[in-house]
Amino acid sequence: MTLELIAFLVLAAASIVSAILMITRRNPVSSALYLVLNFFIIAVLYLFLKAQFIAIIQITVYAGAIMVLFLFVIMLLNLGEDKLQRWTFNSGKSIAVLVGIALIVEVLYFVLNFTSKSAMSANAGSIGTVEAIGKVLYQGYLFPFEMTSLLLLAAIVGAIFLAKRKTSEESAGD
Amino acid sequence: MIPLSYYIGLSAVLFVIGVVGVLTLRNAIVIFMSVELMLNSVNLSLVAFSAYSGNPAGQVLVFFVIAVAAAESAVGLAIIIAIFRNKLTVNIDEVNVLKW
Fold first, then answer.
1. Pick from A70, A99, A111: which is nearest to B5 by CB?
2. Does residue A76 belong to the interface with chain B, where contact is any CB pair within 8 Å?
3. Structural domain contains residue A76
4. What's the domain count of chain A?
């Protein structure tokens, strides 16, 4: 067992534990912080796969921007520890957990019996850099890239429209 | 050397934890976080396939997935704020206007 494999197994166990803690916490803020921890661990796994650009994007966009947005909303809505997340095992939840366990067993059975490549591709070190990703992105995927900017603009406008307080309706309601 | 199947197995386990979170939780915000976890697990498998096959297209796809996830979470959280303003709750059991 090499050092690399041991490090991978430790990180994998840590990410699974943080994900389970994320869905079992009752306080939404601790859920969000465990999810940030999980994102950081996955960023380290990206570095194992020699994908530096994706690792940095993961930390800045996911762990930075998106999770801070989540924390803002949790604190804006002032959701404390409440009855929302109490783990009462009614029949629906037990069925959900059983389906999840069945799915894990099924997927792991096929994945671990599958003869996969045991080593990374020889050029794996050169495709994950910012330069290589940028070349592929701006040569082969230029149109989808520009469409992404349009999508983000639509998302900004939509978010502002949805979250805006409608002043005329508000005064009519009062 | 880590076999490719280990990455795919970890990705599958994280995905199923996200599925169980979506099915069991009642807080809309934490359900959204579970969806983000599922997106992340798929990103992990895409990057693993990309590195093991030597094709950078997988990592470009992950870039697009992250951009779409950012847009999705912005709109989703705006919807949650709008629901909270009307019903003063984010418990999805109490948000059942569209439910038969």
1. A111
2. yes
3. yes
4. 1
